[in-house]
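PROTEIN DESIGN WORKSHEET
SECTION A - STRUCTURE
LENGTH: 383
TOKENS:
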């Protein structure tokens, strides 16, 4: 069976590695960026304990490599921006191992390395044709112009939220905006950072999220509600506007928030601004000859840190099913109920980001038995 993988991000590179030596399968991966180029990946992320569990069970070498290059994600605390504590969870009360905190560039480097021999870089998929035998023939834009390659029995979309393969086979998915802006910043002058593991700080429905990542750096993400037109206005992309969002009305900011606001002011021009959105879940197309994994299948809100985490689970399941000669329908039957649960739960957990919700009550409710039971399911129920 000839399998082509479009995109070597999280899902694509893990699947390529897992299929490399599978009997009866030949795999070629295509990636639009050049080898070693991580420019689209400047910041950090937290990956859930469930991704680590999936890798430990199915791809132990990758698990070990990622553990060695990351910090443990063990804690989740939530404060108000004046320092009032609302929630403090130990992930090991809910999971079988910690999650991890890692730099994006390091994650991509470690995932792409094992599949480098079967990857064609500088290949951006643009179109899709069929050969005389009815096999799929993707068309790529390269430095030398358009190139056709294939005929594949199966093409896998690992090309992320704006998947070209999904759009070409099933049409552009219509995204749903959550109505919040999410920005990210990686701070490297961070020796005096007053915190370590994963924390969140609310000022009204605006929220800062931050943690240390390896290499002495700190990742900061800010979230704030957008107006009815869901536009990120230029005047919000200023130090003064961001400072106003996260400064408490009647007290000075706590030391952690004061530190972050100082860094936001110094590095405002390096901030990456985006809008939080979901897309409808779809697992396959082209009569079962196209398989969608990760964000290509299931773009979700990043509230619980499950986007890349679920892309890992996708790759692990797809590899196991394809190696035993299974179909895309079997992959859908395993993945889709799990993904639907995690997506719905991620949306439910986003309640405190939306204007009109009581942040104190909404956050304290996250210590309730029913919320914690869902978090435990998220962190442990992997394939
Ligand atoms: C602000 C923000 C914060 C986030 N934080 C977290 C977090 O803390 N934890 C977490 O788990 N998730 C997080 N996510 C989600 C996470 O980024 C994604 O869910 C995850 O990267 C999806 O993995 P993927 O393999 O599907 O695609 P990606 O990792 O996006 O990889 C797609 C790959 O396809 C390539 N590509 C794209 N188009 C083409 C083409 N036409 N031809 C060839 N190659 C192509 C790209 O270059 C890339 O290498 C966050 C997302 C956002 C926006």
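SECTION B - SEQUENCE
RESIDUE ASSIGNMENT:
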């Amino acid at each position: 069976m000839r399998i082509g993988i479009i995109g070597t991000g999280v899902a694509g590179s893990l699947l390529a590695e897992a299929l490399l030596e599978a009997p009866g399968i030949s795999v070629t991966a295509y990636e639009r960026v050049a080898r070693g180029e991580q420019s689209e990946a400047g910041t950090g992320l937290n990956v859930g304990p469930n991704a680590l569990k999936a890798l430990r069970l199915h791809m132990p070498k990758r698990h070990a490599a990622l553990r060695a290059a990351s910090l443990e994600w063990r804690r989740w605390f939530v404060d108000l921006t004046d320092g009032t504590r609302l929630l403090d969870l130990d992930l090991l009360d809910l999971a079988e191992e910690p999650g991890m905190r890692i730099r994006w560039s390091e994650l991509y480097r470690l995932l792409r390395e094992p599949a480098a021999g079967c990857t064609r870089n500088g290949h951006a998929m643009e179109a899709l044709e069929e050969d005389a035998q009815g096999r799929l023939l993707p068309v790529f834009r390269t430095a030398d112009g358009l190139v056709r390659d294939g005929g594949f029995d199966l093409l896998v979309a690992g090309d992320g939220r704006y998947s070209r393969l999904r759009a070409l086979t099933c049409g552009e998915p219509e995204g749903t905006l959550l109505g919040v802006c999410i920005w990210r910043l990686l701070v490297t002058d961070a020796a005096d950072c007053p915190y370590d593991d994963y924390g969140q700080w609310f000022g009204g429905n605006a929220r800062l999220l931050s943690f240390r990542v390896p290499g002495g750096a700190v990742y900061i993400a800010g979230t704030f509600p957008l107006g009815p037109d869901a536009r990120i206005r230029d005047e919000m992309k200023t130090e003064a506007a961001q400072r106003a969002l996260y400064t408490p009305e009647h007290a000075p900011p706590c030391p952690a928030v004061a530190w972050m606001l100082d860094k936001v002011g110094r590095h405002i021009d390096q901030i990456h601004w985006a809008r939080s959105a979901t897309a409808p879940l779809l697992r396959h197309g082209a009569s079962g000859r196209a398989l969608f994994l990760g964000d290509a299948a299931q773009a979700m809100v990043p509230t619980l840190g499950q986007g890349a985490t679920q892309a890992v689970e996708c790759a692990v399941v797809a590899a196991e099913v394809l190696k035993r000669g299974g179909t895309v329908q079997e992959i859908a039957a395993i993945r889709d109920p799990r993904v639907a649960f995690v997506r719905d739960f991620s949306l439910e957990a986003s309640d405190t980001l939306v204007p009109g919700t009581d942040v104190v009550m909404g956050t304290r409710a996250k210590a309730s038995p029913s919320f914690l039971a869902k978090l435990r399911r998220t962190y442990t129920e992997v394939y």
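SECTION C - NOTES
The radius of gyration is 21 Å.
The chain has a mean pLDDT of 96.
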